[in-house]
Amino acid sequence: MDSTIKRLTKKAMDRRGINEADAKKLYEIGIAKPFLLIAHANEVREHFKGKAINLCAIVNAKSGVCPENCRFCAQSAHYHTDAPIYPLITTGEIVEQARIAGEAGAHLFSIVTSGTRISDDKEWQVIYGAVEGINSLGIRPCASLGMLDEAMADGLARAGLFRYHHNLETARSYFDNICTTHSYEEDIDTLRIAKNAGLSVCSGGIIGLGENMMHRIELAMTLKEAGVDSVPLNILNPIGGTPLQNAPALTPIEILLTVAIFRFILPDKDIRLCGGKEKNLRQLLPLSIVAGCNSLMTGDYLTTLGRDTAQDIEMIRDLGLEAATD
After folding, report:
1. Which of 81, 250, 283, 316 could form a disulfide with 241, with the two C-beta atoms 3.0–4.6 Å apart?
2. Is the pLDDT of residue 15 over 70?
3. Residues in Cβ contact with 129 at an 8 Å cutoff, skipping those fewer than 6 apart
4. Percent of the chain surpassing pLDDT 70
5. Collapsing DSSP states into helix, strand and coil, what is residue 309?
6. With a threshold of 0.90, does the pTM exceed it?
């Protein structure tokens, strides 16, 4: 077992590619010796990312009434939840939220909107203005605006957007269990279009949707093939009124093993722990960094509360690491 984990650690560090069989073997090792897998994932993280942990924040800039039927989502028009409903906020409000997040310690800030895509010209002008304003603060602007076509992606690149975020949510083979209002290929196309426009690309998913570890490995392999730069991992926080409101929680160890395996498969990418991390990892939250994550979403999420950025920075420093500044 020790020789296998050492061989796969070296393979990851040499960028020779962890395949599905390797990833399954890593999971078997992790079940038997979770902290052995976590320790080696930490070696891979430090090899590529050093001691810097980067922090991002978001604003829920347009909330609710989404026509998609993603079974986890509080903002879907298909379900009755307590999620707020409001139209796109102003450029000034977005930039002000970015300023607050930046002063707290975040150096990436994302504009997030509900819905399949942005189709209104006035909304695009608000977003372009916000991207310019966020750049002027010395913060890298990101956006998550749904599906893109080439003209939309080019417009965002010209406006100065750094990174485009669009989650695949889960494995292709499990996707129909989660969403039926659009195809998986449409999501893949959006990643390709954003990348072709010269944007950094951020894509990941949610674990705890009823999928198993092999589905998560499949997702990681798809993200590797797509050439994404940043991989956000959310852990389901079941919302009342959604079909997954009674979904059983993953154990903290299962979450940590997932983070570790993603680090092996995507050794040099930013692996970002996002929504649900506090609720699901509880006292083991610091171990998510040891398990291979080099990035945290800080502050509040779209429809649920997160953690104060000062707590995240304290945790990073207590681990002997440092919050990145760019």
Report:
1. 81
2. yes
3. 91
4. 99
5. helix
6. yes
